[in-house]
Amino acid sequence: MNILTVKGLTKRFGGLTAVKDVDMTVKRGSITAVIGPNGAGKTTFFNMITGVYKPDEGEISLDTHGLVGLKPHDISKCGISRTFQNIRLFNEMTVLENVMVGFHNHLKSTFLGTLLALPHVRKEEANAKKEGYRLLEYVGLAEFFNEEAQNLSYGAQRRLEIARALATKPKLLLLDEPAAGMNPKETKELTDLIYRMREELDVTIVLIEHDMKLVMQISEHIVVLDHGEKIAEGKPVEIRNNRNVIEAYLGKSAVVANEGRGQNVN
Fold first, then answer.
1. Pair type for strands 57-62 and 2-13
2. Domain spanning 1-79+170-266: which CATH class is it, in words?
3. Measured between alpha carbons, how far is 157 from 88 in angstroms, rounded to an integer?
4. Structural domain boundaries of the chain?
5. What is the number of helices (H) and of strands (E) in the chain?
6. Which ranges of the chain have pLDDT less than 70?
7. What is the pLDDT of residue 218?
8. What DSSP letter does each residue of 149-205 carry, written as one string?
9. Which InterPro entries match (predicted)?
10. Which residues contact 192 (CB under 8 A, 6 or more apart)?
11. What is the layout of strands, in order, in the sheet containing 229-234?
């Protein structure tokens, strides 16, 4: 059963069409990759799914709920969360406080109740701290709970972003270049975490990623964008040998060379 359905998604910025008539379905419980050269429209595609941009044309549905026109916080409440290509943490807040930000949509406390520190507010905050610490344990950052986020290593900051995204209790998690800047050890830890989230938390995952080794290893389905259009989709083995994909990444001459040598984009 599909958890996400996208039909005819299009976004224009003035005379530039960043995403053009893209269709995509994501199966519940799957790991899907969206790949393509720089400027292919991948992040714009994510921004439309999460409400940062409103599509000029097209439909987006999570299960049977239409998302076009909803604000980002409302889409988060529906069950979609994300990380960003450029890490967006509150650097001077602690690691635990950063995770607790993710609980905002699920807290019932009012501003007045918080101001007066009413008993039910204190209880809710204590529960959020407890759950936040549990998420830090899950991503391997519990020992840093009281550190400022800016003091974490790059790979740890990436995992902190994921923990904050998990705090929103998503059904669908979008990861925008999660392995960017990571060393091999950090990438391996990230790969293991993605598998665990899918298996243990029942989270469906869609990622944008330039690390083709990671993409081919972890993805069950791949969608390829180029100049805003979908040029291919399928299983990793199909994408690896696709003429359009090879040409988009390496140029037309590479297609001829690839056919002569039997090579692929991996």
1. antiparallel
2. alpha beta
3. 9
4. 1-79+170-266, 89-169
5. 11, 10
6. 105-122, 124, 250-266
7. 95
8. GGGS-HHHHHHHHHHHHHTT--SEEEEESTTTT--HHHHHHHHHHHHHHHHHS--EE
9. AAA+_ATPase, ABC_AA/LPS_Transport, ABC_transporter-like_ATP-bd, BCA_ABC_TP_C, P-loop_NTPase
10. none
11. 80-82, 172-176, 204-208, 31-35, 221-226, 229-234
How high is the pLDDT of residue 263?
A: 53
Residues in the chain: 266
> How far is it, in rounded angstroms, from Cα 47 to Cα 6?
13
How far is CA 43 from each of CA 46, 208, 209, 219, rounded to the nearest angstrom?
5, 8, 10, 18
Give the integer Cα–Cα distance in Å for 50 and 52.
Answer: 6
Strand pairing report for 2-13 and 172-176? unpaired
| Residue that is written with structure tokens 């995204």 in the block | 165
pLDDT at 194: 96
Residue where the block lists tokens 């400027």: 39
Which residue bears the tokens 């943490």? Answer: 89
What six digits make up the tokens of 197? 């989230």
Buried b (16+ CB within 10 A) or exposed e, 29-53: ebbbbbbbeeebbbbbbbbbbbbeb
